[in-house]
């Protein structure tokens, strides 16, 4: 169709068809949809069908349409491709075959393919749309550009649309973008900045197709329509845990070039599962039909996500994966991929509604079944006197209580909303959801289907059809805004960085996985339930287990030295601290504990928070050994570490918590604010003889302890109890207890973890391996 005359004829034909389909009624305007990548896989499988559905839903109402398939494919091939796809379109079940054929005919006449490559092509496209609108005597309402193209093509297309394809004044422009939206926070930011140079935020619709899945799209309406019943239930007081799951049987064969770059966390958890999580966890706006307030509330949920650590995730990789990468990407025989194809992640929210509730996100390829769901499992606080054979689903409080948004596939084979009968009878819109018929023998989550009030959509719709309709109606809350995107990457990127070199557990795939991938959690940690069987671990010999190493007691500078693998070391230190605390409280009524920062004490804090229920926290005062000159809420702050890993899990009276005053009068560690002196006075006032019961120190690889550095002499002697010091690394300014003050403590423990610190402690073991150590002594 290179010949201009042909295009004119087609335009006229389309206009005629378009007018033919319009009933004699006032139109609000004409909408042109331009599908970029019209000959691609996504377009073939979903997008053309979604556009047809849009036409079925909207044509004859207020708008007229034209659909332009565009791609780099030659005109002849493209036309043939589009003609074939259009022929295969289907109508919903309730449309009679004759009517369907008629509607399909109309849609075919409104659709055309065009080769779109150069900037001139874009200019011509815009002119043709204008001509079409003019010919039909129509008013242009808007243009939708659907980018079904790889991200490297985005910038060029965006530039062309912005410079020559914007509609005239009064009409809107909507551009629809498909993932991946970057690879991490930085690349997402760069991509967002680039696109922001061409489009306004309100013009961009980033698709996460999970937001179009019917069960997912029903989460907020369900919460809204059942507010009364859910008000008392939707919180940490009643919810035991939330599971957000997407299991797949397929593997990554055929797309390893994409997958090898992304892996399961970037491919599924960062987007689909996180979006679902925010819909469950966000505060419900008063008016859920306001896109703006939904988006605002969702953003707040993103901000309440507690930062993840390496221990928050388990990773797996199906065994055939590396071989597939080697084959598809011509990698050498020695190549072993570290890309995870399976991940389980434990997420927590730091807010009053959800504090302490585990949100489990899990997805994987080559698993035993294909299924997706969100399951909210409620605590059971009842005791039932009647024997269990007499328990009746809608009366017994002892049966499991759960709400499930069943996204699809699995045993049910369709989307559904399930509510245990012993919770409440839910209300769902009857025009779109109907009760599921009985399915004897079918069990879900260990219970017969008859235990649930179960609903399925009246008409099943593909996610893309749902989203295309939402784009048309300008429902921005079903899409990913730039702010949300960056918030999500901001949450996932640190975990991805920390896991970059982690070796995933190999699994055979399918039902053979058995219980190999089962995982369990405690506190903030997640781990596989079973140890890795040796036959799946490549490499020589079994790895040494921590328990194979004896705790060694010796002397170090006249004090006891305990040297062990980290697990035992931390357990021993935590026991010693608790024993010291109990003794101090018994003798003096209080226990003054000064803690240092950095990463070494983190496992100790976790140990104290999760294993030491006899600790006399109510009588313990917590002090800081040193602090970085950053605000207390900064992730670099030592206090923030203490807060995240210890304080929020225990009950210490707030007046017993003594952060260092590094941030006074909106300034950081300014001499004139006298923060060091203030802290020293507080210590003198509360701690008898300014002698802490226990000071826990760490040691830097350069030999520094607390924030006392070898090259900066302040604080090593003299009268001052608390000093400002300078660190050779960022943040340069620090506040620290002085050495004389530390040496007044009844007990000092130095916790040294990690191989790199071996030299500095000048410890030598007869063994090659280097355990960590703690010494208890005066400096
Ligand atoms: C895509 C991922 O976003 O979602 C795929 O890139 C995954 O890896 C797919 O298979 C799953 O979507 P659905 O709709 O089949 O559940």
UniProtKB/TrEMBL annotation:
Keywords associated with the record: Carbohydrate metabolism, Glucose metabolism, NADP, Oxidoreductase, Signal
Xref: SUPFAM superfamilies: Glyceraldehyde-3-phosphate dehydrogenase-like, C-terminal domain, NAD(P)-binding Rossmann-fold domains, NagB/RpiA/CoA transferase-like
Keyword Cytoplasm set for record: no
Family annotation (Pfam families): G6PD_C, G6PD_N, Glucosamine_iso
Signal peptide (residue range): 1-24
Record-annotated Glucose-6-phosphate dehydrogenase C-terminal domain positions: 222-513
Membrane-traversing stretches: none
Domain Glucose-6-phosphate dehydrogenase NAD-binding: 34-216
Matching CDD domains: 6PGL (cd01400)
Protein's UniProt keywords contain Iron-sulfur: no
Source superkingdom: Eukaryota
Pathway assignment: Carbohydrate degradation; pentose phosphate pathway
Domain Glucosamine/galactosamine-6-phosphate isomerase: 566-762
PANTHER family in the cross-refs: GDH_6PGL ENDOPLASMIC BIFUNCTIONAL PROTEIN (PTHR23429:SF7), GLUCOSE-6-PHOSPHATE 1-DEHYDROGENASE G6PD (PTHR23429)
Record protein name field: Hexose-6-phosphate dehydrogenase/glucose 1-dehydrogenase
Origin species: Felis catus (Cat)
